[in-house]
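Troubleshooting: if your tokenizer reports a length mismatch, compare your output against this known-good record of 164 residues.
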Amino acid sequence: MGGAAKIMIIVVTGPICAGKSTYIAHREKELQEQGVAVRTLPLDTMGHSVLTEIYGPNIDRAWIAQKVFSDPEELKKLEEIVHPLVFERAHRYSEEFLTDNPDGVVLIETAIPLSETDHPWIRDAQFIVLDEPFETRLERALNRGMSTEQFVLRDNAQRKYRYE
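Known-good structure output:
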């Protein structure tokens, strides 16, 4: 039988404004047109949910972003709280979905290169790394209403990751 194993989890990663959401939307549509059940897990959105659960619905995400993206130690503290919860949730959602849809595909969108994490459930995933020139990503950020300063802070904070 020795055929290639079916990829059930696809992780799309890359820096801010690299085109991850656009790629995911196209891939999700393509898979659905082929009759494949798809579950998309945007880890950034899941992180926002975790923050709201921890700190309440009136959390000032803009203030938190300004604080953590300008201070590596604050970012590290926040990541130590949020990332394990997000990864656990993504694992559970993926497992539940694939149990109910054994021929399905889970698409994970994340700026965090999960290939650098030690999560056994993600080892057999297909990793797709997207990137664009700084100027293109900045233009996209500005079009989304982000300031140049906000973009640069986030981009600099993500430089610790190796996107390979």
